[in-house]
């Protein structure tokens, strides 16, 4: 399958408004897939404990950080998310010279969650993912279906001071540090000759396969991809469109600007069809460590018809029940072999309400416009409130333990009135 899904963005000073890092991602997945938003608190583990990922069990670490995740409801990992140290990660499918049809191992989405749970900086997340790739590999079906859809992964990772682009091919990888400006990725290798970290055998492996002569300047995208870097820059691609949209807002990139980009249909970034945008995320992370990061999630498909709702990390944060899908435990068809013999109903409460309101928006133009305006007003009011936190910080943490769920309830209230 040709690259056809996901766009991830990051903007750092001086391209942003104020001293803030802005991270954004559209998760483009099969149109019938449910994406949930869930929170897991920090936790300590014993020395012999394991963690069961989507397909395989691996060794657990002594301590995991608190994380908020937007994830396909059928698997363990996540498409995107953030942790209590304001590290944000999103992954992209990539296809290159190396076959992705390997045995079940860690999914790229598992690596997103593991990176967030185990790293308190963006650079450490690169190292965590690299070690896990070397030890366990990546592989296995990436959608809840028997079709065997597989891919390797690239990751955009940010924290309060910088971002990293990590691109993989099997166990081999290269990483590039981004210290200012903006960067976007869209299902194609983008690291060229600026490589700040790499698998120690990555170049020799390419030379042994005949992909690189060992003498010319090493270009990761050219060597490891089916596609040339010229294709990456070609007009009409979502990568090029996304880069252009960032350029237009350069110096003034804000949360609102990132949301506008994620909602853009003409570029293909807000995707429709068999693969569509099933979840969206925008994070605002001040460079000042005294200030909180605000992480907005839709938990519903199509950002144009969804509300970006804020989450901040505070002690005693409540479980996000309205956006958590049903759990089927060991009876889940994903856990049984052969896998994917059936598909249970994974819709969470917000998804159910949203699905009904989208049908109304599609069927009744004037009524739909009023509903959309009401949703935008709710979002605008919430963002105005979050702006105060981003400027002065969190004075009374207990006020915000139910922030995300409270916004979900307000959104569902708009649906009920409609």
From TrEMBL:
InterPro entries in the record: Peptidase_C69
Pfam families: Peptidase_C69 (PF03577)
Region: Disordered, residue numbers: 321-345
Signal peptide: none
GO biological process: proteolysis
MF GO annotations: cysteine-type exopeptidase activity; dipeptidase activity
Record-linked PANTHER family: SECERNIN, SECERNIN-3
Similarity comment: Belongs to the peptidase C69 family. Secernin subfamily.
Name of the protein: Secernin-3
Organism of provenance: Crenichthys baileyi
């Amino acid at each position: 399958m040709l690259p056809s899904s996901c766009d991830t963005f990051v903007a750092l000073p001086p391209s942003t408004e104020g001293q803030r890092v802005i991270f954004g991602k559209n998760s483009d997945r099969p149109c019938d897939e449910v994406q949930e938003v869930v929170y897991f608190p920090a936790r300590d583990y014993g020395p012999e404990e394991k963690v069961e990922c989507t397909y395989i069990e691996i060794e657990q670490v002594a301590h995991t950080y608190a994380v908020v995740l937007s994830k396909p409801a059928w698997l363990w990992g996540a498409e995107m998310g953030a942790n209590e140290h304001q590290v944000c990660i999103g992954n992209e499918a990539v296809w290159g010279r190396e076959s992705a049809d390997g045995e079940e191992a860690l999914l790229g989405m598992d690596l997103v969650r593991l990176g967030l749970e185990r790293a308190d900086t963006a650079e450490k997340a690169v190292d965590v993912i690299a070690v896990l790739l070397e030890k366990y590999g990546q592989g296995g079906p990436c959608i809840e279906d028997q079709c065997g859809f597989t891919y390797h992964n690239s990751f955009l990772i940010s924290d309060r001071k910088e971002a990293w682009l990590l691109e993989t091919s099997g166990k081999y990888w290269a990483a590039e540090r981004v210290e200012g400006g903006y960067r976007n990725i869209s299902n194609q290798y983008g690291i060229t000759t600026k490589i700040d970290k790499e698998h120690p055998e990555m170049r020799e492996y390419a030379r042994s396969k005949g992909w690189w002569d060992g003498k010319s300047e090493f270009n990761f995208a050219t060597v490891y991809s089916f596609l040339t870097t010229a294709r990456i820059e070609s007009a009409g691609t979502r990568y090029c469109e996304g880069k252009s949209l960032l350029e237009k807002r350069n110096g003034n990139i804000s949360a609102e600007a990132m949301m506008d980009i994620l909602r853009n249909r003409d570029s293909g970034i807000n995707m429709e069809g068999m693969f569509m945008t099933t979840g969206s995320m925008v994070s605002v992370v001040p460079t000042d460590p005294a200030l909180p990061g605000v992480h907005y999630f839709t938990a519903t498909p199509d950002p144009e018809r969804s509300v970006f709702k804020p989450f901040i990390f505070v002690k005693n944060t409540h479980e996000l029940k309205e956006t958590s899908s049903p759990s089927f435990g060991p009876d889940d068809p994903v856990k049984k072999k052969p896998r994917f013999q059936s598909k249970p109903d994974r819709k969470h409460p917000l998804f159910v309400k949203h699905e009904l309101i989208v049908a109304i928006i599609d069927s009744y133009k004037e009524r739909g416009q009023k509903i959309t305006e009401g949703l935008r007003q709710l979002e605008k009011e919430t963002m105005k409130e979050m702006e105060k936190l981003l400027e002065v910080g969190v004075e009374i943490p207990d006020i915000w333990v139910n922030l995300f769920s409270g916004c979900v309830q307000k959104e569902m209230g708009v649906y009920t009135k409609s």
